[in-house]
Design brief:
Bound molecules: zinc ion
Shape: flat
Radius of gyration: 16 Å
Structural class: mainly alpha
Number of domains: 1
Mean pLDDT: 82
Low-confidence stretches: none
Length: 74
Amino acid sequence: MKDVFGFNKAINWDKLNDPKVLKELEKVFNEKPKKKKKDNSKKNDMFLNCRSCNTIITNDYRSKFDKRYCADCL
Ligand SMILES: [Zn+2]
């Protein structure tokens, strides 16, 4: 994955070792989605972020096969 915007650097990895933060994360992950959002997107829909890895897709980095994904995911 290209880190074009330096997101990886922006993440405070030390926070992930904080028990309080871990507990909050656990809560988020254990929460069950109330309603499943219907996904009506089609192959040629342009997404700002990759549908799979959530990375912002720059024009030259978009998948040729499915515009919803970045080149890494598809
Ligand atoms: Zn992706």
